[in-house]
Structures are given as structure tokens and as C-alpha cells.
Amino acid sequence: MSDTTPDLIERRERLLTVLRALPGTVVAFSGGVDSAVVAKAAFLALGDRAVAITSDSPSVPRSELAAARELAALIGIQHVVLPTTEFDNPDYQKNGGDRCYFCKSELYTRIEGQLKSLGLTTVCSGANLDDLGDYRPGLTAAAEHHVRHPLQEAGFTKAHVRELAKHWGLPVWDKPASPCLSSRLAPGLEVTPERTLRVELAEAYLKTLGIRDGRVRYHEGDLARVEVPGDDIARLLDPDVRQALANSLHELGFRFVSVDLDGFRSGSLNQLVSLELKSRYSSTRTPLNSPT
Question: Using CA of residue 146, residue 150, residue 152, residue 154, what is the dihedral sign?
């Protein structure tokens, strides 16, 4: 547990107060730092009236699912792995830039189907204040399903979330963001289990090179655009490393392999989303009960 500061203690207590006011809750739990902090806070505030649910589909890397199981066990919260079927939805498959809306709609619908058997009525997400104003179709789905966002309500930015995660000794406190595998497919490129598996294995290869925060973006024509932090670009361009990387991705089925000289940028494929969709799904709503 890290040293505490008055501001950290105040934010921690605000978060716990938000959750204590609930009769109980399901936390949509990906295993990332945001949902981990909400799950930890929910367990502290509500005990066995808090349950974490993790979705399982071809968009979730097997390593991430295993890590979510381990993290839930560490927190102590009851954990349910819930299969979801967003890949059966043609609107999800066509990947028109609003794919995340249909994914989250499926997840929250499935979670709602579990509430009665769990004796719970509320669903919480890990969305924080930094998610407001961004292109977030998933937040539109959350609003439609009346999902609560305790981190927003308690006034947490991403930096605050990481600070509290470190304070609580959660090993994911500095974990890079890890969006679903389908997010690596360029808008308009059909989402299939074969393509998400290809991305999963390609990014696993990057990790063998010691690259912790890399992405393999999948474009039309089976083109892989590899994004890594700027300091790692030179290493990938070493002749031996470059050839081994190209060979590995060709073996996975990519016909073309490129290294993006701009380096890693979170959500870079959003540049290909139409302005109309961005306007429709941008979240500018002020979170309930949050400080201004």
C-alpha cells in the first residue's frame, strides 16, 4: 500500500460513499485498472452484495480473461464469467464505427439477465471523467441500460484511478489500457473470430519482444499496421527483428506488415470514423453527483 494523502483519502471515501448507497451491484469487470478499482471499492463497501462479471467472447484475449480471474480472486469479490454473443449481431460484425455500442448493449443485456438470480438490481461500470467528451459509443449503451459510473460520480480522472489502485496494492495500477481485440480492426472491415485471433497472436508476439504497450491494427487487404511506443520503433527496424516480425505476422495470415512511424496512439483508428457517428456517440454528459 502506498503512502496516503488527504486528497487520496477524500476521493477514496467519496467513491465508497457512492457505492455504500447502493443496495448491491454488479460491476462490469474487464480486469483493467478502472473496473478493478470499482470492484475493489464495491467489495469494501458492499461485501457479498457486490459481484464482478466479465464477458467472454472472441474479442477477449485468453490472457486477459485469465488475468481477470486472478485479479477478482485477489480482490475477494464474487466473479462470474459470462459468455456474450455480439459476434452473432450483423450490426456488430459490419464494424461501422459504432461497433462498441452493440458490444456494450449485448453485455449489459446479458448482465441484466443475471440480476434476478444474483439478487441485485444495479450495474456499475469503470468509466471515469476522462471518458467524458470522447467518442464513446459504449457510454450511450450504458445510459440506455441505466448503468451507474461510480468513478465519474466520485470525481475520478484516470490519474486518480491509478493512484487509488496503487494505494490498494492492485497489481494493475500501471497496466496499459487493453481495449477488446475487435477495436484493432479498421472501421468497415468485418469483425470475425479469425481476424481477432490473428490480432491476439500478433500482439502476443510483440510481447515476446519486450514491448508492453503495442497494437497491431488490422486494415483492408490483410495489412497489419504495427504501433509501438516511439522509443521502440528503432528496435523493430533492426534488420533481424524486422524480418522476424514480418515472418511471424505473415505466418498468421497478414499479407502486408508495416510499422507506423508515428508510434503508438490510443484509439488511432477513430480517425477513420465518420464525423456523423462521432457526433452521435460523443459523451458530454455531466456525471450524476460529480464535483464540477
Answer: positive
